[in-house]
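User: My collaborator sent over this chain with a note saying "see what the structure looks like." That's all I know about it. Can you take a look?
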Amino acid sequence: MSLNNSSNVFLDSAPSNTNRFQVNVINEGHESSAAADNSDPPHYEETSFGDEAQTRFRISFRPGKQECYDNFLQNGETTKTDASFHVYDSHTNTYYLQTFGHNTMDAVPKIEYYRNTGSLSGPKANRPSILEIHEQLAKNVAVAPGSTDRVANGDGMPGDEQAENKEEEDKSGAVKFGWVKGVLVRCMLNIWGVMLFIRLSWIVGEAGIGLGVIIIGLSVVVTTLTGISMSAICTNGVVRGGGAYYLISRSLGPEFGGSIGLIFAFANAVAVAMYVVGFAETVVDLLKESDSMMVDPTNDIRIIGSITVVILLGISVAGMEWEAKAQVILLIILLIAIANFFIGTVIPSNNEKKSRGFFNYQASIFAENFGPSFTKGEGFFSVFAIFFPAATGILAGANISGDLEDPQDAIPRGTMLAIFITTVAYIGVAICVGACVVRDATGNMNDTIISGMNCNGSAACGLGYDFSRCQHEPCQYGLMNNFQVMSMVSGFGPLITAGIFSATLSSALASLVSAPKVFQALCKDNIYKALQFFAKGYGKNNEPLRGYVLTFVIAMAFILIAELNTIAPIISNFFLASYALINFSCFHASYAKSPGWRPAYGIYNMWVSLFGAVLCCAVMFVINWWAAVITYIIEFFLYIYVTYKKPDVNWGSSTQALSYVSALDNALELTTVEDHVKNFRPQCIVLTGGPMTRPALLDITHAFTKNSGLCICCEVFVGPRKLCVKEMNSGMAKKQAWLIKNKIKAFYAAVAADCFRDGVRSLLQASGLGRMKPNTLVIGYKRNWRKAQLTEIENYVGIIHDAFDFEIGVVIVRISQGFDISQVLQVQDELEKLEQERLALEATIKDNESEEGGGGIRGLFKKAGKLNITKPTSKKDSSINTVQSMHVGEFNQKLVEASTQFKKKQGKGTIDVWWLFDDGGLTLLIPYILTLRKKWKDCKLRIYVGGKVNRIEEEKIAMASLLSKFRIKFAEIHVIGDINMKPNKESWKVFEEMIEPYRLHESCKDLTTAEKLKRETPWKITDAELEAIKEKSYRQVRLNELLQEHSRAANLIVLSLPVARKGSISDWLYMAWLEILTKNLPPVLLVRGNHKNVLTFYS
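Assistant: Without extra context I'll predict from the sequence alone. Here is the result:
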């Protein structure tokens, strides 16, 4: 069937009401679909297709959906109405769109193309690939069975991902919060925590109004800088659940995120204890006043705290909706309590309140309280350490990012507004309480100034009260002594008590919700596999019930400490470490200059973020240096652990971006430096094909390039370009992943070419970057050269010539069994498929049994079946040894053993170096590097060189001197004086028999016949060629005899590679040389450098 490509085939009918963005669906065949009712059908050239047109469209229908395709025409043409058009139908190879008034598969920009699979905000769509647009249209357009389902499900998403999407759809009823209820309310409640009512008056008493405002200001500077950095990160992409952990991990990578995630979740769990203890302290004070103590103050705090945290746990477990309602009620109470305090400051004080130190606004009290008056053991930073946890509430909204409608908008707006409002409140309360209440008061209304008494100059003395005895004995009232000052000052005391309850319980509730949410996000990412148990969520909001229980246990443990001043500094350091990393994340992302860093929140600066990070670290050490050290030790340990485990995640972190920038800068800087012989290292192109198919060749090369040189595993795809490019592109990532998984420090590169030699030539010329270019070609010995076709031999020898032409060294490796284990891998793949089919069958049987037996555990079996089907049953990629468990008859056992021989420790033995020709030193350098490796370190170097019979000792001394100058350790030196002797007759006979099928024997024929044979078979070995280089052939055969004699027991032989002069030595004769030279020997490396120095004895 031919396809008519005339210019009018795909013309539009130009409907009258078409706008610029009209999209119509038509079939991809050369016939047109039925046009819309308001347009004329386009005209086509007549073409006869016979009966084939009736059957070439094969459509499979989903159950109940056949009516969507009722308008298929009887002549084989297809059309779809708008009613049956599915959002994904334009992304298959069957249909294409009419866009901008033209028929094309090109799709207009849509958000669906940019979503991740399993996105919460909607389904992912796949745009047509470049191949679908670039390649010719198919002559026959067929829809394979089931393809309609595939299209409807999002263009072939994997089954697990479909399940995830379905799960998300089921959770569409989940409660989502806006910026006020979700962020602003939570942050304000958490910041207005226990410190506002219980400790702020004490802080003003210790530090004074001036330093107290500075303490508040310093805290606000830290939180504001962190809030700005957090806002920038939040607006640089979709934010999901996990709060600070999510922001840090997606910015700096799993190493930083995983380490700080645990610390941050733990800090929130401890914060629950801090707030509950604050609440319990207030209740105990009330019990003291009413003389209703249960045991003693400390144990009463423990009892009340334990009961409280159990109640809070019940509210949290009830769900986010109930928790949010509770937060709104608590905020109203809190606002009323704060307003009540400010009202109370202007209500005239009575004698009882005056005896307790409250005198309304007085300039003398303000002046007296403006400066610091630290008690024993307290200082600026110790007081700051007590106050700072009050500022940690800025992450309360971010911590439930997964429950926000629009985290990108809600987090910056709600957090920054909450910081501003709470800062104003804190400063206002600090100044007001400092201007109204004296530091020390007795509470005795009789301690008044009697006329004639000397006034001690204090503000209270000037106002008629004598509190001087507080200097000698402890008093119960005043800013320094009474934690319930705000209750005393307020207009209605019980409202302050309600405010304290509200502030402490709301903060505790927020932390109790935050810790499990952050911990669940951390566990879902599977960074710590042992914690996967806590990743499970329940209900429509995916509540982390297991995390709630864990947080409850941690909180209970710290509640038993029952000392607020002990708990506060501990979590201060944990939160500061989190803040430091949030600031550093913003700086790092900006510094990496990644094009993907485009935050919508523009009010940030990378250097300000860096200053914020440094400030957080400095404050950590100032608050409590030993706690800061412990925090960083824990973080460093977790960082090392995550780095070692290398979780299989890719979040496009700024660490990756900066690694790229650093690598690029280093590569460019390297180009400005001239190469020096002291820095020479083998940088190899290894012709492995797929790296897993010739593991031994890769292993021996990796042995002398690991951590020192470049190694590129190369594959040449030969054949039709279209098929080769498709196969090449599809396998690139998989093969590079195999190298990474097997801890082989190498790159994978592939080319598509018309012939093998052209492909290798391209690799030799174009591989590498700047100074990091290959200087050595490593290839396996062609064992089947006698059975190979002429073009294969020409290509094989040709690439050696090409390498020398490009001044690249050559290493040919030969082992007895050969390198290619692709047949073994094919057998293993087949066995794996059979095993997966067996598991799938078992899963199906289990599903059927569970359906018959009852639906209670059906879902569990289905899930287990899916996991078993998708999980690989073997680890081919990690080790070739796994195939040894197969039946011996299905693969060559010796071949498999040979393929792993360079993975094993070699043990005590020798590496015999036959340095016959000076190639610049590569023949000597490679074995020396091998002896530095762990697997080869027990092998000694034995050096063999050629020499004259009458000068053996002198040449041995000269070689020893040269090696000592090169600082290369050796065990023995042997000077072979009989290299140029003729080989024995048996060996020469073997060589002659080897080349016999490839000889021309022109001397035995008449001149005409001989010339004809030369023209017909120019590749054959002529008698003239054989005679001209007979001495060289003798040498190769003789060398094999010497190798058999001296190096038969060596672990490895490194031998100078003979060079075939172009135009003088035929390809078959050269292959015979290599064959006879390395026949019946241990593993051999035939090495020839590019005759430029790679060794030097100069410093």
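A starting point for your reply to your collaborator: The CA atoms of residues 931 and 937 lie 5 Å apart.
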